[in-house]
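Q: A reviewer asked whether we had any structural model of the full assembly, not just the individual parts. We don't, so I'm hoping you can provide one. Inputs are below.
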Amino acid sequence: EVQLVESGGGLVQPGGSLRLSCAGSGFVFSDYWMSWVRQAPGKGLEWVANIKQDGSETYYVDSVKGRLIISRDNAKNSLDLQMNSLRAEDTALYYCARDLRSRSQFDIFDLWGQGTMVTVSS
Amino acid sequence: DIVMTQSPDSLAVSLGERATINCKSSQSLLFKSNGQNYLAWYQQKPGQPPKLLIYWASTRESGVPDRFSGGGSGTDFTLTISSLQADDVAVYYCQQYYDTPLTFGGGTKVEIK
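A: Here is a predicted structure for the entire assembly that you could use as a starting point for your response.
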């Protein structure tokens, strides 16, 4: 089955760190750009970061630059998001999402995980 | 950053009637070299991740019912549900992929009248 499964979410204090993971299966993970997209409770969607197939290029929304780091391990079919210096405004459901086409970059998301919840609160 | 503005925030439509959602971008999403508009639409039902409906402003994703259609060009786009079904109750988002950061509209909630 083609799927993405996120893990690693939880409750963390402001200024703390957390590492999210996303496991891909049923497709050639290394052929796709991958992204993290988040959704604050009751709010809309916000793209966070993406990473090229080989990990050589990464891009971020300004609000997370220098604090969140996207990475991948194609041998393990895994996408990660290292989250440092967390703030209350980072509280959200974090989705990993796959690009529409393999071996290309379209930045259109055709496969999403169910998400993992991150809550930043003291 | 490209700002995406959707309207209305919510709408209630009778079963079988047409629903139209608008999406406006702060700059053109038309890439002149290929004539494509870098605009996608997603549907999100409660407790579920978003589902891709349409990309390149008007190309329906595989498996999406043909009652969903996308239109528009440049900065003004529409998503139309030609005959609303109960299963279409959801929040709909537009997304531009013309430039980074990728940005979404604020969403439009569609309900049954």
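A: Points you may want to mention in the reply: The two ends of chain B are 36 Å apart (CA to CA). The first strand of chain B starts at residue 4 and ends at 7.
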